[in-house]
Amino acid sequence: WSQTPPPRSLVKDGAGGQHGMPSTIGAQNAPRRLITILPRCVVIHALAICMPACTTPFRQPLRIMSAKQSHSRSDWVASAAAAVLVAIVLITVWHFAVVLLQLPKIMLPTPWQVAQAGWQQREDLIQGSMTTLLTACAGLIWAVVVGSAISIVFSQSKRLRRAFFPYVVFLQTVPIVAIAPLLIIWSGYEFRTAVIATVIICLFPIVNNVTTGLASASLEHQDLFRIHHASRWQTLIRLQIPTAIPYLVLGTRISSGLAVIGAIVAEFFVSNGANYEGLGAMMTRWQGLMQTDALMAALAMSTLLGLVLFGSVNGFAKLLLQRYLPKNQSAYDR
Question: Could you tell me the pTM of the whole model?
Answer without folding.
Answer: 0.71
